[in-house]
From TrEMBL, chains A, B:
EC assignment: 3.5.4.1
Biological or metabolic pathway of the protein: Pyrimidine metabolism
Taxonomic placement: Bacteria, Bacillati, Actinomycetota, Actinomycetes, Micrococcales
Gene Ontology biological process: nucleobase-containing small molecule metabolic process; pyrimidine-containing compound metabolic process
PROSITE patterns: CYT_DCMP_DEAMINASES_2
Protein name as it appears in the record: Cytosine deaminase
Quaternary data: Homodimer.
CC per GO annotation: cytoplasm
Cofactors, names only: Zn(2+)
Key word Iron present: no
Residue ranges annotated for the CMP/dCMP-type deaminase domain, each copy included: 13-130
Length: 159, 159
């Protein structure tokens, strides 16, 4: 159980559990030498896939946490995506936001948006429900990324 | 040389050559049983990569023509993308448009936008230069796709 002072204690238990799974993926990515961003695609609490940024691990320009999760979920009909929530440890870049819009994913739970936030207005305009957890572990992972692997982070966001 | 009546004869010869290369990729994708959309990433006329939609071929949910081309170009610094033109046989979906925005690709040459167009306003808002060729071969490929493989096309755009 989160402590009463936990700023994310407003999260529903299911969202907390699935965001934690995305954070596990982010931590795994960090331990692999990569960009610590993880994601989960879930439908009604059932995990369809987990993913993490693979820039370093696979030399990939397009496998961010969210796109990696979508890719690992495989080919799905539109009816599946429309019942999904996408969990991501960091506010989505335009590519990952666009991927959610392409598949009309109606809801995104975002670990944190202090270190990066570009697409939330676009997503909201298209009716996507956004829940920002402001999770300290997510913030800490990105703080470390920017401090210790800043050059890779800049590459990851085209800066 | 294109005939004087060719509606795409306004294209610069370099753009014509690189769009043709994207069309070759689209045709290859069609012959493989896939979605006939191809793309090329080029810098100053030099081809960095070619790509095509791999939904059918690789069971992929994220390898559209444009993202496949970006992936095949490998990890590149921001300075490279900022000098690139992205050629695509069909107007980009939100994911592929978002990918171009992520990497701040300044210019996109679009084969056609009659059969699909969702992201051009967004791209233009962000200052991306768009050139629409209205190329008959691109239109014909998508017409065939929608007629003969309509279910896969719907899956590809989350419909």
């Amino acid at each position: 159980m989160p402590a009463a002072s936990d700023p994310t204690s407003f999260l529903a238990p299911e969202d907390r559990r699935l965001l934690d799974l995305a954070i596990e993926q982010a931590e795994l990515g960090w331990d692999e030498g990569g960009v610590p961003i993880g994601a989960v695609l879930a439908r009604g609490g059932e995990v369809l896939s987990v993913g993490r940024n693979r820039r370093v691990q696979q030399g990939s320009a397009i496998l961010h946490g969210e796109t990696d999760a979508l890719e690992r979920a495989g080919r799905q009909p539109a009816t599946v995506y429309k019942e999904c929530t996408l969990y991501t440890t960091l506010s989505p870049c335009f590519m990952c936001a666009g991927c959610a819009l392409l598949y009309k994913i109606p809801r995104i739970v975002i670990g944190e948006n202090r270190n990066f936030s570009v697409s939330e207005a676009l997503l909201a305009e298209h009716g996507v429900e956004l829940v920002v957890a402001d999770d300290e572990r997510c913030v800490d992972l990105m703080d470390r990324m920017m401090t210790e692997r800043g050059e890779i982070w800049n590459e990851d966001i085209g800066e």
